[in-house]
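Quick start: what a row looks like.
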Amino acid sequence: MTLIQMQPCSADADPVRRKAMEIMDAAGPQVCDDMSVEVALALMAAARTGRLVVCDRDEQRIGLVTRTDLTTVRDSGAHTDRVRLRDILGDHGRSPHP
């Protein structure tokens, strides 16, 4: 079972990184990158949000996923129940945009 992290990850003193963290704080609940697409979609529905902040195993924020991202993956022919959020984000994740 994947747990949801509801507390913020630490931010560096770098103003650009801090701004990115502020954007991700406003984006939605934080989840671990090993969460499956189906579970993430169910969480979004329950939380009534369209975005999730994705953290790695070290609780560092690595990107955002949206409902559109997840439904596109789910509806694709290549989707299996083994697809995780880290698979969608790739190596670097997606940077938040204000």
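That is the whole record. Strands lie at 4-5, 30-32, 51-55, 61-66. The CA atoms of residues 25 and 56 lie 16 Å apart.
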